[in-house]
Amino acid sequence: ERCPVLAVCLETSKTGSLQCAIETSTKDIGISFLRHIYTGSYDANSSDNRLSRYIDIPVIMHVEMCLLGLNFDVPELCSLALSYFLDSLEVRGSTCSPPESLCATIQLIYQHPEDLAFFKKDLVSYCVTSAKSHKLAQDEAFRQVVFDLPEFWVDLGHLNSERNFADE
């Protein structure tokens, strides 16, 4: 109904063999992608508590869903994923802990700088804004990501400088 050709390609043939396959980092990502194709939403709890999509779903899932949307030319999936991603960062900014999989999300976004440029600015902004409240500088995994990704370190510095170091 939403993507009929793609939906049919991902089903089994009359002989029971796969007609097409997609590679994802986790089974949940693949299931969520198929859910989006069939229902228009990849959130399993979309009819339940709306806040759960921002707290319970790791932010990396939204980024991975966008990559699938780009790879399979499903622009509305990219828009939805970006919207969920931004909302998740906003909600997490008002909690006492960073989002689940923050470091993996940073790494994934910086591995695909052209494809995910629209995620990068908001992610860097979240990190600068929440650094103190979420104690990111004391988080060993976060510090390692900053060390491993010099471009991320530079982006953090530039944004901090643009804000006249107001978040320090």
List the helices and strands and how they pair.
Blueprint: H1 4-9, H2 27-39, H3 52-55, H4 59-71, H5 75-93, H6 102-111, H7 117-130, H8 140-148, H9 150-162
Protein name: BTB domain-containing protein
Descriptive notes:
With 168 residues, this protein is mainly alpha-helical. It has a domain of 115 residues. 60% of the residues lie in helices and 0% in strands. The chain contains nine helices and no strands. Helix 5 packs parallel to helix 7 and helix 7 packs across helix 9. The relative contact order is 0.09.
Count, helices: 9
Oligomer: single chain
Query: Termini distance?
Result: 50 Å
The count of DSSP E runs of length 2 or more, i.e. the number of strands, is 0
What about the largest sheet?
none
- SSE pattern, N- to C-terminal: HHHHHHHHH
Helix content: 55-70%
Q: Beta fraction of the residues?
A: under 5%
Task: Provide a quick synopsis of the model.
With 168 residues, the chain is mostly helical.
Which key phrases capture this entry?
168 residues; mainly alpha; 60% helix; elongated; BTB domain-containing protein
